[in-house]
Amino acid sequence: MDAERLRSLLAGKRPFASIYFEDSHDTEDAATQLELRWRALRDELAEHDADETVISAVERAVFELRSPVGASGRAIIADSGGVLLNEHLIRPTPPTVRVSPLPYLVPLITHGYDTSAYLLAAVDHRGADLTVHRDGRLAAETVDGGGYPVHKAAGAESAGYKDPQPRSEEAARKNIRAVAVRVTELVDDAGADPVFVVGEVQARSDLIAELPDRIAERVVVLDVGARDSGHDLTEIQDRIEAELLKRRLNEIDAVVQRFRAEVDRPDGLAAEGLAAVCSALNQGAVETLIIGEIGDATVVTDAELTVAAADPDVLSAYGEQPAHTIRADEALPVGALAVGAGVVRTDERIHPADGVAAVLRYPVTAVPGPS
Question: Pfam family example for this protein (predicted)?
Fold first, then answer.
């Protein structure tokens, strides 16, 4: 998960409302279904004593985001100042509403997009349709390089005209160069990665050849047909989601392999179990937090929610007075963000003690005992 873009949530004001729900748009009555889901979510927010201004802000967020293509989920996190995050999820998620001192991030880490932005370019030799997907929002534009004609006119040679082929080829090159320039600008502005390219084979190849190496290395080609042939948007979205999921699984694999290599070594850079991971977070030593099945486990924290421990005695040993009891699945991901660590949600590949583990930046001192 791209933790950097979630770090802004740390500046939010308590309490936080964290809402997750299915936001699929794959049936004729999708709008009606969304309305019904919102009514249930609104009732649950009220039951959790959410402030009416927060409920109103969340309601606007529910309906303001552009409808997704096909199956999708949604994550909304808000505080008293308004909506902090409003994003589509790769997969639908069961409805969840929490109002608590910290934002609940586990479903977002599990089902959210790993990149804050990606770009889709549907290209041919006349230009391209470009769409930047950024934080759940879409910005679309068309690039027309102004090069004409792109195709050789039928019968031109037999009518006694000069061969228009060189002019046609130069027009196509001009258009592709214009597309490459705009793609580069959008990628640099949005930090888009990956860059998905669809269209006829030669146009795709020509575009990639025109891109700077640093942009070309981000390209993922989707072989789904020509730009003007009426792409199946659902197929394109399925291909995109499959690629993003593959990248996520590769990231999890890498973290799991490193954890396994470190956990059994003397002084290995790994920790597992609630007490050990809390200690590592308090010492700023966590490089990647691994969230498994934590269940309803809790931790105790100081008044500012900046130091967490598995029990009050350990917290006191840090010189802090226990002030709050917080769900571990809320406190630990937020604690990881606070120390600049990454966060991954693991699956059946590993089962760490207490459902939580970490890969460390450096060795940590032993968990302090009670004074």
Answer: baeRF_family2
Query: What's the angle, vertex CA 253, arms to CA 356 and CA 259, rounded to 5?
Result: 45
Q: Which fold has domain 249-360?
A: 60s Ribosomal Protein L30; Chain: A; (3.30.1330)
Q: Where are the CATH 3.30.960 domain residues in the chain?
A: 4-111
Residue spans of alpha helices (H) in the chain: 30-47, 52-64, 106-111, 165-190, 201-210, 213-216, 233-263, 274-282, 312-317, 328-338
* DSSP structure class, residue 208: H
Checking 31-34 for CB contacts under 8 A at 24+ apart, the result is 34/62, 34/63
Q: What is the pLDDT of residues 177-202, one digit of tens each?
A: 999 999 999 999 999 999 999 999 99
217 torsion bin: left (phi>0), alpha (psi -120 to 50), beta (else): alpha
- In degrees, to the nearest 5, what angle opens at C-alpha 278 toward C-alphas 89 and 18? 30
Residue 127 C-beta-side C-alpha neighbours within 13 Å? 12
Superfamily of 117-231 according to CATH: eRF1 domain 2 (3.30.420.60)
pLDDT of res. 277: 97
Sole residue written with tokens 């593959």: 246
Chain centroid, CA 250 distance in Å = 15
- Give start-end residues of each CATH 3.30.420.60 domain in the chain: 117-231
Taking only the tens place, the pLDDT of each residue in 157-168 is 444 555 556 678
HSE-up of 222 (CA within 13 Å, CB side)? Answer: 27
Third-level CATH fold of 4-111: 3.30.960
Q: What phi and psi, each to the nearest 5 degrees, are found at residue 259? A: -60, -45
* Cβ contact 267:363 at 8 Å: yes
Q: What is the pTM of this model?
A: 0.84
